[in-house]
Specification:
The protein is α/β, with parallel strands linked by helices and about 220 residues long. The chain has 10 helices and 8 strands. About 40% of the residues are buried. The chain binds pyridoxal-5'-phosphate. Pyridoxal-5'-phosphate (PLP) binds next to strand 8 and helix 10.
């Protein structure tokens, strides 16, 4: 099977309202172009700014690029003109910088708040306390050029599906609490990005609205 067949197979097996981000990190641009030509899929995810920029320059303009990896403040300026969704916001400082670059580009940049839900310490993300602290900071409310569309999390890399499921439940609960307390009047706060190749079915069970699938589409990296 090629990437297009694998993507179509995944699509057939999940509800239509779930967004799929085809995670194209490490894949050469030609493979992305091929999937673009063979399907109507337009949402691709990258985890590194330099790689994202190079691909954005080469590939068609109607691709929606999502940044899914840790973002350093000094690199925001490179992606601010075009990025469709920054899924990996993990500090107020970063959000302030995204807002600043969004203003320069005369746009509003959609973002997700990344939560640390895994047990492996290499992962990034907010705790619930940190997010609450940020949302109650007056500085946050001055950021008119960022739009918080929901939350994102990366589960622990494990075969233990109970562990994975419990991490996704935590993210879902965090989303619900934030929605009620801070975003009740913001319909755009509607997304939970969780689930990758090995755990997207569990994630969808637990309320995911965006799955990020790399190897399940493009094959092993
Ligand atoms: C690489 C990556 C993915 C996709 O991983 P696969 O296991 O290849 O599906 C999803 N989310 C993030 C944040 C990633 O870095």
């Amino acid at each position: 099977m090629n990437a297009a067949d694998r993507l179509n197979e995944i699509k057939r097996n999940i509800p239509e309202n779930i967004k799929i981000v085809a995670v194209s990190k490490t894949q050469p641009p030609e493979r992305i172009a091929q999937l673009y030509r063979q399907t109507e899929h337009r949402i691709f995810g990258e985890n590194r700014v330099q790689e994202l920029n190079a691909k954005h320059t080469l590939l068609p303009n109607d691709i929606e690029w999502h940044l899914i990896g840790h973002l350093q403040t000094n690199k925001v300026k490179y992606i601010a003109p075009y990025v469709s969704l920054i899924q990996s916001v993990d500090s107020l400082k970063l959000l302030v910088e995204i807002n600043k670059e969004a203003i320069k580009n005369n746009r509003v940049i959609p973002c997700l708040l990344q939560f640390y839900i895994a047990t492996d310490e290499t992962k990034y993300g907010f705790s619930m306390d940190e997010v609450v602290q940020m949302l109650e900071n007056p500085l946050f409310h001055e950021l008119k050029n960022v739009e918080i569309n929901g939350v994102m999390g990366v589960g622990t890399l494990t075969e233990d599906t109970k562990q994975t499921r419990s991490e996704f439940k935590i993210l879902y609960n965090n989303f619900t609490q934030l929605k009620i307390k801070y975003f009740a009047d913001k319909p755009v706060f509607s997304h939970i990005s969780m689930g990758m190749t090995n755990d997207y079915q569990i994630a969808i069970d637990e309320g995911s609205t965006i799955v990020r699938i790399g190897s399940g589409i493009f094959g092993a990296r």
